[in-house]
Amino acid sequence: MKSMKDKFNKKLPFKVPDGYFDNLPLRVQERIAANQAQNKYKGRWVTIRSQLAFAAGFAFMALLSYLGYYMVHPLITEKKPIKTDYVEIVSRTIYEFDDIDLFKAIEQKKRTDSLKEVYDEIPHRLYVRSSNCITIIDEKKEIKP
After folding, report:
1. Which H/E stretch holds residue 100?
2. More confident residue, 109 or 95
3. Looking at the domain assignment, is residue 83 inside a domain?
4. How far is the C-alpha of 98 from the C-alpha of 31, rounded, in Å?
5. How many other C-beta atoms are found inside a 10 Å radius of the C-beta of residue 122?
6. 3-state class of 54 per DSSP?
7. What does the pLDDT look like over 1-32, one tens digit per residue?
8. Which of 1, 78, 119, 140 is most buried by a 10 A CB count?
9. Residue 115: which residues within 8 A CB-CB, separation 6 or more?
10. What is the pLDDT of residues 35-53, one digit of tens each?
11. What pLDDT digit, counting tens, does each position of 50-93 carry?
12. Considering the domain boundaries, does residue 134 fall inside one?
C-alpha cells in the first residue's frame, strides 16, 4: 500500500478553481429553478403524449384481438360435424335389401345367448362380506335351449 502512495506522490490529478465551492449552492439552485420552468411546459406535453401512447397501444391490442378472433372463427365453423339424418338414409336404402340379404347377414353372425352371458357375469358381480373375507357367490345355472 505504501508503494502505491509513494508511486503517485499523494498529489491530486485535478485542480479546482479558487472560490468554486463558495458559490456552488447558489449555482445549483439557479439551475434547478431554470429546469422547473422548462419542465412545466414539457410536463403537459409529456402527460398528453404518454396518455395518447397508452390509448394507441390499447386500440392496437383491441384491433389485433378482433382480427385474430374473426380470422380464426371461420376455420372453426368449417370443422363442425355434419348432422346425419339416419331416418333419411334408411328410407333411401331400405329398398336395396331383400329379406334374403337380411337373413344371410343374421345367419353369418355368431349366435350368442345374451341371457347366458348375463348369468355368467352375476357371480363376478355379487360379493358377500363374511368374517373379514370376500367370497364370490357361485350359483349353478340351468339354461334351457
Report:
1. helix 99-108
2. 95
3. yes
4. 106
5. 13
6. helix
7. 567 666 666 667 778 888 888 888 888 988 88
8. 119
9. 143
10. 766 656 666 777 888 899 9
11. 899 999 999 999 999 988 888 877 665 555 666 777 677 767 77
12. no
For 126, phi and psi rounded to 5 degrees? -95, 120
Name the one residue in this structure whose C-alpha cell is 343374421.
Answer: 106
What residue type is assigned to position 34 of the chain? Answer: A
The span from the CA of 32 to the CA of 44, in Å, is 19
For residues 139 and 123, the answer to whether their CB atoms sit within 8 Å is yes
Question: What's the domain range around 95?
Answer: 18-110
What does the alpha-carbon distance between residue 97 and residue 91 come to, in Å, rounded to a whole number? Answer: 12
Helix, strand or coil for residue 11? coil
How far, rounded to the nearest angstrom, does the alpha carbon of residue 37 sit from its chain's CA centroid? 51
Q: The C-alpha cell of 30 is what?
A: 439557479
The answer to whether 139 and 122 are in contact (CB under 8 A) is: yes
Number of residues that make up the chain: 145
What is the rounded CA–CA span in Å between residue 138 and residue 119?
Answer: 10
Q: Is residue 133 part of a domain?
A: no
Q: What is the pLDDT of residue 60?
A: 97
| 119-134 pLDDT, tens digit each | 666 665 555 444 444 4
Residue whose C-alpha is closest to residue 76's, from 66, 68, 64: 68
Given a contact cutoff of 8 angstroms between Cβ atoms, the answer to whether 128 and 134 are in contact is yes
